[in-house]
Each structure stands twice: as structure tokens, then as C-alpha cells.
Fold this protein.
Amino acid sequence: MLDRITASISDVARRISGKATISEKNIEEAVEEIKMALLEADVNLRVVRRFVNGTIEEAKGEAVLRSVNPGQQFVKIVHDRMVALLGDERQDLKLKGPDTQSVILFLGLQGSGKTTSAAKLAARLKKQGRNPLLAACDLVRPAAVEQLSVLGERIGVAVYKEDTKDAVRVAKGALQFARKNAHDVLIVDTAGRLQVDEAMMREIVEIKKAVDPVDTVLVADAMTGQNAVEIAKSFDEQVGITGVILSKFDSDARGGAALSLRSVTGKPLLFVGTGEKTEDLEPFHPDRMAGRILGMGDVVSLVEKAQETMDVAEAERLQKKMASESFTLQDMLDQLEQVGKMGSLQSMLEMLPGMAGQVRDEDLDTSAIKSQKAIIQSMTKKERDNHLIIGPSRRKRIARGSGTSVSEVNRLIKQFEKMRQTMRKFAKNKGMAAKMLGAMGGF
């Protein structure tokens, strides 16, 4: 995500942050490069002008030019300006307490990922201890109700639907159902169109009056760039929105919509869709995103992902096994599965300082991880628990079963043995272990 702009701006930041002295000419050249990167990313022209003028004005002051670390001071100014551009602070949903109903109204154009985003948000709220209900009020798109029903069943969230063509009636029925059945959050999925039209707006306005939402959330396709910003303006003027979810953000290499939305519409970016799975919905943090764009990484989000996917008790059990050198191939397989739940390797690398925009998808060999998993999965339980019994004949059988070669099986076992030795040394160094486990959220 944001590959082009991240690569360009992080390169500028790296070059200038290392300078012991900088001049006004250095600043102008750096800002010009950033300006071109923003324009190539399809950022709104007025937004770019305000960003550039403000950055130059602040950076040319004595506080920067005569600073002990002028390069780093300049990068800080760019970072702070970028944060302001993206929305200053993280904005969340205005949910009421669990004793009453909070209604979230979803709207957007057809094909924006509205229905999928509604299910993703429901899954996220359920994980946080809420009891959400999805209302199928998209009665225009064929199979929209069925799609929401399938997604609801997958995430274990109830879906309210009626055999009618009256979306307002369904919304009112869903609200009554939520009150009777103690659903503290009602997410209303409305109909979209290929373009903004009067009939759609009338229906959404009527639904909004009927359910009185705490949040009216627009789902916009990040791939549409500046169009997403114009669509947000149109919906806000006619219906009134409180925030935006950008879907398909993982596929948005340019990032114009994300960087323009807040400045142009005044509405916060609440979440971004980062994949096809129901858990692929991330809260949008302006400061963290600015850090990623400038190549500073986002270790906090990486740790939060680890906390969400890893179990504390299981991590403690593994630490004991590491110390006693009883870590098995089954444990290794479990860890590979856990890492897979955290998202793609590319998305995790982007969160590490200095890595954003530096590694392309084609540079990553994820097939090696798949081969390792296939090899271990082709072993018996006894073999996974005790790798020492895996002799030549067993290795041949495992290679055949996993679609790999004997040399690949040999390589995996050697890597595993080295890893066990390293883990044992690491586990015995309690000081180092405590620091690492503390960094990973107290595991």
C-alpha cells in the first residue's frame, strides 16, 4: 500500500536527515521532490499546495537552519505536516454504552466493498465484546442480502432481513429486533448505485431518519483515488457523513484518497480495508501512517497485530520449551500458522523502520514458507514430536508427500536444529528475553 509515495518520500527523508548542515536550497529541493511525489500519488492539488507552502515556511526558519540536527528537524516538520494532513489524531466510532443500541449506517457506491466492510466491522466489534446485528437493507443489488447472510454466518453475527422491497421498513424492523434481543450495535447495510443518484439519496435519508445513527459511515474504494474524495463530498453534502472507511487499501499503491480525504472533506478516516479476510480491517492512525510514509515504520501496529493473534499462555509454554530444548517441529508449524494470521509478509515488512517501499511483492519468496509447512504437515505426529527418528526412508516418504525433494527435507531439519540451539541460548539470557517479550506486549 502507498508503495510509490512511501518509496519517494522516505528516500528524501533518509537523504536529508543525515546532513549535518542544510541550506534553504536543500530545503527547496527536498520539498519539490515531496511535492512531485504527492502529485504522482493523485493527492488533491489544493492539499499539495497547502502542504508545500506550510512546510517551506516552517522549515526555512532559524529553528531548523541553526539546529544541532537540522536534517532531523526538517524530517520532523514533514512528519508533523503529514500527520495534520491525515487527520491529527485517531478518530473512532461514537458508540454508546452496552446497555443501549448504537446504530451505524453504511453507505457508498456499488462495488465499493460496503457489504464486506460492514461484516468486517461487525467481526471487529464482536471481538471487542459487543453483540452486533447486521441489517440487510441493500434491496437493489442482486444477491446482496444473501452475501451479507453468508458473511454473517461466517463470523457468527446475526443478520436481520425481510422479504420486502421497502428498505426503510427493514431498517425499522432491525432496530426493534436489536432492542428485543439485546444487540447493542446495529450495522445497517444500504443499497449502492453505479453513481450518485436522487433515488438512492432519498432512500438513505429516509433510513437515516428512521434509525437515528450515531455514525454515518461512507465506504469508498481507495483504488478510485480523487474520485473517492469527490464521492465523499457528494454524500456529505446530501446525507451528512461522520467518517470514512477506505476499502481495498492494500491494493492502493498511490494513496491519493487517504492523503486528501480529511483536508478536502473535513471527515476523519476511521478504518482501512487491508485484505479479503473478515479480520482485514485496521483502525486508521494518522501518526502511524505518516511514520510509514516517511520510512519510520509502525512497530506499534505490528505489536498490536501480534497481541491479537498470539495467546499469552501459549507463548509462555513455548518459552519454557525453548529453554529446555524441547521445541518440536509441531511447535514450529504452529508458529508459522500464527505468523500467517498476522497478515502478508509484505504488510509486516512495511511496519519495520526503513523497510516501507523498499521491498516489492516479487522480491519476497513466500513459497519457502509454504514448502516448510507442507513438509512438516507430511510428517506423522511421532516425527513432529521427535525429529531424531526421521531417517533416510522417512525423509523420502515425507518428500513425496509434500511434493518436495529429499534435499529440501534435509535442509528444513538442519534449519530446525540450528533454530533450537539459538532459541535455547536466547531463553537462557533472561535479560534479553525480558526485553523482547516486553516489546511484544508482555508475552
